[in-house]
């Protein structure tokens, strides 16, 4: 039985909006997959994933592979592909059981990293006689990134298209290299005319694929906007690279109505 309180309802709504879970009628289940990313190359054309059933019931799964790109806003775009294959595509796991899934490709590498995702989707259990239908089940759909890496890898990025208007900062983290990076931490600082800090805020980033950008925004208060003379935007990646951009605050950036 899955009981809801206010907090769990909010979390479930968030997961549903992200497409990470699918509600069904039955009891909750649990599984895990390792590793959580797959890197392929001209030398390594296949790897294995291990799916483990942590629940006390038999779970059923199906697998799908997609080419993964990002649009101009950095949003995920998925298209069915046969560039990457996974076997088996359909299987069941008894409680406590593991299953090896082999992921591979015959697609040649290029000068730019190719990116894919394999989705391991939990299926509803087979119907049983006299099974109760008045409880809620969370069916998980887990996406694992797959990277087909070029022989020579270049990690390079920056902050571009900074726009400040009506007390709001909009900018893009752009990938100028030929492989993905993860913007682990974004830091946005406002500096006044005496070089003192007006505000200093941080947030987590996400994947930025090769030849793609990820959009971000930050809302300032009227007072923060009015006092700020220089903006500093820093992006730290998971491999400890740092991209920094400074920008003078435009004269008409602050909205007097706020």
Describe this entry's structure for a reader.
It is a single chain. This protein has 258 residues and is mostly beta strands. It has two domains: 29-148, Immunoglobulin-like, CATH 2.60.40; 157-248, Immunoglobulins (Immunoglobulin-like). It is 7% helix and 52% strand. The protein is built from two helices and 19 strands. Strands 1, 3, 5, 6, 8, 10 and 11 form a seven-stranded mixed β-sheet that branches. The radius of gyration is 23 Å and the shape is elongated. Residues 1-28 have low confidence and may be disordered.
Residue stretches low in confidence (pLDDT < 50, at least 5 long) are: 1-28
Q: How many independent structural domains?
A: 2
The averaged pLDDT comes out at 86
CATH superfamily of the largest domain: Immunoglobulins
Q: What value does the Rg take, in angstroms?
A: 23 Å
Number of strands: 19
CATH class categorisation of the largest domain: Mainly Beta
Briefly say what this structure is.
This protein has 258 residues and is mostly beta strands. Helices cover 7% and strands 52% of the residues.
């Amino acid at each position: 039985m899955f009981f809801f309180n206010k907090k769990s309802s909010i979390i479930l709504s968030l997961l549903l909006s992200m497409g990470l879970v699918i509600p069904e009628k039955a009891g909750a289940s649990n599984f895990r997959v390792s590793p959580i990313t797959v890197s392929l190359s001209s030398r390594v054309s296949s790897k294995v994933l291990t799916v483990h059933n942590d629940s006390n019931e038999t779970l059923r799964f199906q697998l799908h592979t997609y080419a993964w790109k990002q649009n101009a806003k950095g949003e995920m775009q998925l298209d069915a592909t046969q560039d990457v294959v996974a076997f088996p595509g359909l299987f069941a796991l008894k409680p406590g059981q593991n299953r090896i899934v082999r992921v591979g490709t015959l697609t040649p590498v290029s000068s730019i990293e190719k990116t894919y995702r394999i989705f391991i989707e939990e299926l509803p259990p087979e119907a049983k006689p006299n099974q109760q239908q008045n409880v809620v089940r969370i069916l998980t759909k887990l996406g694992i990134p797959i990277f087909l890496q070029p022989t020579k890898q270049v990690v390079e990025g920056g902050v571009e298209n900074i726009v400040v208007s009506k007390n709001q900062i909009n900018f893009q983290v752009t990938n100028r290299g030929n492989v993905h990076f993860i913007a682990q931490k974004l830091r946005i600082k406002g500096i006044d005319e005496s070089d003192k800090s007006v505000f200093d805020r941080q947030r987590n980033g996400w994947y930025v694929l090769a030849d793609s950008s990820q959009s971000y925004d930050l809302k300032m208060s009227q007072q923060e906007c009015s006092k700020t003379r220089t903006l500093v935007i820093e992006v730290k990646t998971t491999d400890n690279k740092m991209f920094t951009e400074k920008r003078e605050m435009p004269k008409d950036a602050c909205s007097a109505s706020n």
